[in-house]
From TrEMBL:
It comes from the Bacteria. Transmembrane segments: none annotated. One of its GO terms (molecular function) is ATP binding. Pfam families: AAA_16. This is ATP-binding protein. The lineage of its organism: Bacteria, Bacillati, Actinomycetota, Actinomycetes, Propionibacteriales. Residues 15-194 form the Orc1-like AAA ATPase domain. The keyword ATP-binding applies. Keywords: ATP-binding, Nucleotide-binding.
Length: 393
């Protein structure tokens, strides 16, 4: 029996599709590698959960490593300030690559690392105090000090990589929407400054976050909008088939056309669902090399997949506030497709202006997503039916 090659909830073994997006990343990398200069503005991929942002970023990271880059990965979170995480991650990446600056540059490097980790970690306070001590007249706002430190840290790190024969430094920022506005502002200002001396900075940054990310960045700094925003969509039908076929093929296992059709239709290109249904079908079949996965296996695997989805629905429902739950219930009652603001407000028995806050929060959480013209839809398939089912209970 072969090992299950599907990866629900984890980075896929084979990234299906995403050729256009990968080319954008490769464009940045090529610029850094060829000219030793800044790759370009911050590249930001945004999409609801489960669409494949982290998977794409990881694939970009792999490509960068193959091209001789040193890469630093940061999973942003609301629990920790992001700037010290960046400093740590860049520091570790340089150590692993044996590219830590030496001599006088090394001393400066360690000093910066220290300042970013210790002082910027305590938002504002310490940096401000320090700056105030140095210049008795009007202290600049706290972020200025942080920008300066982060700027020279990234500059020195990228230069050191290059001096050690590497192509440059790639910073990957996942879940960027969780960064605080201050941290976003420092980050954007830093990138702006690095851009001012682009030929001196063999560096690129690629980020991913929920659909609120572009708006959050633009709010954090007026020029945040100069970042390159790319929204990730579900996989096309061809790519969805590839996501199912390729991992099995690598294990010498095939799919019958009927089985493939069933999963492609059921998952509607949603990468997480493809992996989940691929996985439950595989487990139901427990195939040997040369075997084929059939519609019977798909059907046998479905209850397991449904249980898993229900657990996810339950978690999302449980994480919603009472007001958000009322919003979700009204939305689910209105149907499975795109729902208007008016329909939700009517369902809740309130004025349509009154639903803005829960609407925003649910979009931020990635439970629903805007689809234009004020319409929203659920991001996870089957969620509407789950919520309607709660009423019956
Ligand atoms: N291009 C892809 N090809 C195959 N599987 C993918 C692809 N993108 C994502 N997946 C799968 O979808 C699920 C969600 O991917 P992930 O990158 O974690 O999404 P996100 O970061 O947007 O929440 C994972 O199980 C992953 O294996
Ligand atoms: Mg992710």
């Amino acid at each position: 029996m072969r090992r299950n090659p599907y990866t629900p909830g984890q980075v896929p073994r084979i990234l299906a599709g995403r050729a256009v997006e990968m080319r954008r990343i490769e464009g940045l990398l090529a610029r850094v590698a060829t000219y030793g200069e800044l790759g370009g503005p911050l590249l930001v991929f945004h999409a609801p959960r489960g669409i494949g942002k982290t998977s794409l970023l990881r694939a970009g990271q792999r490509r960068a490593v193959e091209s001789g880059f040193v890469t630093a990965w940061v999973a942003c979170s609301r629990q920790r300030p992001v700037l010290p995480e960046i400093a740590h991650s860049v520091g570790r990446a340089l150590e692993r690559a044996d590219a830590v600056p030496s001599g006088a540059a090394g001393q400066r490097w360690r000093g910066q690392l220290e300042r970013l980790t210790v002082e910027v970690g305590v938002p504002g306070a310490k940096v401000q105090a320090q700056v105030a001590r140095r210049q008795s007249t009007e202290a600049p706002p706290a972020p200025h000090a942080a920008i300066g430190v982060l700027e020279s840290l990234l500059h020195d790190a990228a230069t050191a990589v290059r001096e050690h024969g590497g192509a440059g430094l790639l910073l990957l920022l996942d879940e960027l929407h969780t960064a605080s506005p201050d941290d976003m502002s420092v980050l954007l200002n830093t990138l702006q400054n690095l851009d001012g001396e682009r030929t001196e900075n063999p560096f690129a940054a690629v980020a991913a976050g929920l659909p609120v990310t572009p708006e959050a960045l633009t709010r954090a700094a007026t020029f945040g909008e100069r970042s390159t925003f790319i929204s990730l969509d579900v996989l096309s039908e061809i790519d969805a088939r590839a996501a199912l076929v390729a991992p099995a093929e690598a294990e010498g296992v095939g799919w019958t056309p009927a089985a493939l059709d069933a999963i492609v239709a059921e998952s509607r290109g949603y990468p997480y669902l493809l992996q989940l249904l691929g996985s439950t079908t595989w487990d139901a079949a427990d195939p040997a090399a040369g075997a084929r996965l059939t519609l019977t296996h798909v059907k046998r695997g479905l209850p397991v997949a449904r249980d898993q989805l229900t657990a996810m629905h339950r978690a999302r429902w449980g994480a919603a506030t009472r007001l958000e739950q009322r919003f979700l219930a009204a939305m689910a009652a209105a149907g499975d497709a795109n729902v208007t603001r008016a329909a939700i407000a009517a369902g809740m028995g309130v004025d349509s202006r009154a639903i803005s806050v829960p609407r925003e929060r649910l979009i931020e959480k990635g439970v629903i997503e805007p689809v234009g013209h004020g319409l929203v839809r659920f991001t996870l398939p089957g969620f509407a039916a789950y919520v309607r089912g709660l009423d019956d209970a």
